[in-house]
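Annex B. Sample input.
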Amino acid sequence: MYLDTSGRPNTQWLNPAAFAPPALGTLGNMGRATLRLPLAWQFDMAVSRVFRFRESQRMEFRAEAYNVLNSFRPGVPPGSPNSAQVVDTNLSSSQFGKIRLSLEPRILQFALKYLF
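Annex B, continued. Sample output.
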């Protein structure tokens, strides 16, 4: 059923030869939740430091990193309640079974906050 299990973007994830369109007016015979997307994980981290100037004043520096290892994660389209559109499911399409979307790459953000 699966061709390339690496989970890389734009690879042929599903094998078209493993599927056939159902007869006209009928539903297919594949069970619910039979197909799975590639493993997706994310490593995030944050570091902060507080500097005190006076009793009532301080400054906080914060650095945050999301998807630190920049791993590929198949994405769900914005506003979609499920992941059905992540992999092309049109059997007659040349794009059938290809992972088309991915979530954000590595993101870094920094903040400096002055509290008084």
